[in-house]
């Protein structure tokens, strides 16, 4: 049975609904995004509603940018292509309390709308409400003190979070987490399993089917095909998923030849986090700038200024310590021991 | 076998391209900065080497397993749908910047425009270096009359090129550029890219929409037979008015005035969006240069690049303060009447 409607509630911060258009039932329901299934819930009053299926956009009186972006007040429509993926999206009520979003896509496009559309809507909603989202992983200890590791890919943020599970920490997220008023809230999405984060604990709990999948994907690597294996963390370590904790220490991880951990100022930390988030936001940066070009005094145009302002408000330097951790370019267990030392020190 | 081509951009910036290959058949299309070609330049600001190379450094920092970064150093090796490239930028913030690129492309574009990607990187570095000197390489067109310059900014598809063509043919204006121009204190400096193509279009096409494969081929064959397409270029003129052209999905034309600070975002986004768009036709739509800049800032947040990515709009805006700036709404479909309207807006006091 494929469902027609999925409701999501992420800590009451973002609530949204994905609806599959009836006419396209068979074609689309198999392709409904599963990225946020941890936050499935019954009924909600959504911040935005995504209706999946073919649609006719309402393009009258729009400004047309680059021949394909149609923009008017709180409205954006475009048809996008990325490699073989194609999708079109129409957002009504952009950056308001109720966004109605229509999306249609082809098979490869189904893989991208999470990054290019839903992620954008979540980010813009959090930004509007003054809540921060940070590109990083986070863990918390038994006394609900949380530790955050903000980094680009390849710095070991996932490895650190997974390593920490072996020493009684709880998991809050491995790629993005939510921060509001000095508290870190989990943001649980499927975990990408690679050889380097395939820890004993994960191996033990990995569903049999996923183990086979991983085995074959690893074989494909030898002929140059890289496919990720995504597993729901609830299947791997259900007892180790935390909900939220007071942020105690925030680490900026940057891979470097020399390993070193130093205290930095809040201002420096914010700049690192900002650029980190901007890099992560490249898939939707074009929407921000296109809309911002047409409506230069909108809050969308000021997206990054608002992001920075929210960060500044949500991270109090009196209760949070900021560190710059230069970690080896290839992650090893010594990294976690070094970081654990700093975490456990007062 | 290699070749050295020198460029002098209005004595504001100089560059040298060293190519591993020598003259190619398609160079009249491939080399887009020919207007600025000089016999020689001493102490060039930018050296662009287009050939196979080994990275000079292994990189103290690594971002996303892909980029090696050190102070004043960037290296990456990447690929996209139709292209793969290696890029090294050395001493971006010093007097002399060296760029090493090797790039291989697939498809027709690799024959017609083999050096498009390296030149695109050069364009971004020129934009950055000019910015540090207080000059702005803006995404826009400019025409000139009686010693005055009129700049037309706007996103892709806002018919900047067609408007320029008609203003020059019918309204007595001269050309300064239809994709980029340099705005400095008081003056607009010409920045023609592929001037031969623009000149061909003026003589042979109604508007920019006609520039397809047939005309490309014809223009190429005529050039091969020795025909030279050129038009008069006004190197520098006094900046008089700036328009932001907006194509609107309705009939009729309109003029909008925004408050001054709203223009800062427009000026910023108009340029930065080009990072996503201007190499899209190579199948690269994820703004590599923008990502390189952000990755560098992710390691060195205090570098001058920060100012470039955030202050471009307001610095440009204060440079043109006191000049008239206006939004011009034009209809969805182009007709010569649009150029007439622009001409009227230009002469309106």
Give me the secondary-structure topology.
The complex is a heterodimer of chains A (346) and B (349).
Chain A: E1 5-10, E2 14-20, H1 25-29, E3 40-41, E4 48-52, E5 63-65, E6 69-72, E7 75-82, E8 85-92, E9 99-105, H2 109-128, E10 132-140, E11 145-150, H3 157-165, E12 170-173, E13 176-180, E14 183-185, E15 191-193, H4 200-205, H5 208-221, E16 229-231, H6 233-236, E17 244-255, E18 260-263, H7 266-280, H8 282-294, H9 303-314, E19 321-327, H10 333-344
Helix pairs in contact in A: 7-9
Chain B: E1 3-9, E2 13-19, H1 27-30, E3 37-38, E4 46-50, E5 61-63, E6 67-70, E7 73-79, E8 83-90, E9 97-105, H2 108-112, H3 116-132, E10 136-145, E11 148-154, H4 160-170, E12 174-177, E13 180-183, E14 187-189, H5 195-204, H6 213-224, E15 236-248, E16 254-256, H7 260-272, H8 274-277, H9 288-299, H10 305-319, E17 324-331, H11 336-347
Parallel strand pairs in B: 2-4, 4-9, 11-15, 15-17
Antiparallel strand pairs in B: 1-2, 1-3, 5-6, 6-7, 7-8, 8-9, 10-11, 10-12, 10-13, 13-14, 14-15, 16-17
Helix pairs in contact in B: 4-11, 7-10
